[in-house]
Specification:
Helix content: over 70%
Order of helices and strands: HHHHHHHHH
Radius of gyration: 19 Å
Distance between the termini: 29 Å
Strand content: under 5%
Number of strands: 0
Structural class: mainly alpha
Shape: globular
Length: about 220
Amino acid sequence: MRKKYQCQVMLDVVMVSILLSLMGFHLWSEYVHEWLGAVFFLMVVLHVSWNIHWIQALFQGEYSTFRILQLSINVLLMLLFLSAAISGIMLSRHILPNFIMHNSSDLVRKIHMTSIHWGLVVIALHLGVHWKMLANFFCKIWHISPDSVLVRRILPALLGMVSGYGLYAFIHRGILPYLLLQVDFAFFDFEESKLLVYWDFFAIMMFGAYLTRYLIWLTIFRPQ
């Protein structure tokens, strides 16, 4: 297995960890939140640069339904990253306090919150699109047969339970109003466990990714 691909997957795992920290804004100080956001943005740039061959091949070959879906999700994800990054820079009070674009208005804060929450959803879709590839990767490095009972029965059952909890966490944490631009001010529980926050947002991501993977299989690959 190529070393570059192993590094890419490791980078993705670190990015997900930082993303969960960013979703738990109240777990860390504002200073730490801004630096985590800056590191996450640099990792996104690195992630794109390592996949530059995909961008270079955009105007080559035919477009299947799956390829159109993949392109749409990636373009939407990049727009959300840019929206979150630009609004984050405008709100910055520690890294770029005197930046010419500084603007801490309610509108910018609302755009930032909405971009971050939509980003979480679309990252889940992005993971779902690459689910099969990632599953093969982990089977190879852990020396597990794709046809084993563990892969075909036990893991899908476990992921199904995690996804079910993710749906509950999605509703319980009121994510939908954020996506619909209905939240002007976020209210945080500063006493809640960090572990619970990480687990909830991880489960929400798994719910989106697993549902995406299932729908792709049901509508695109199964009919073939």
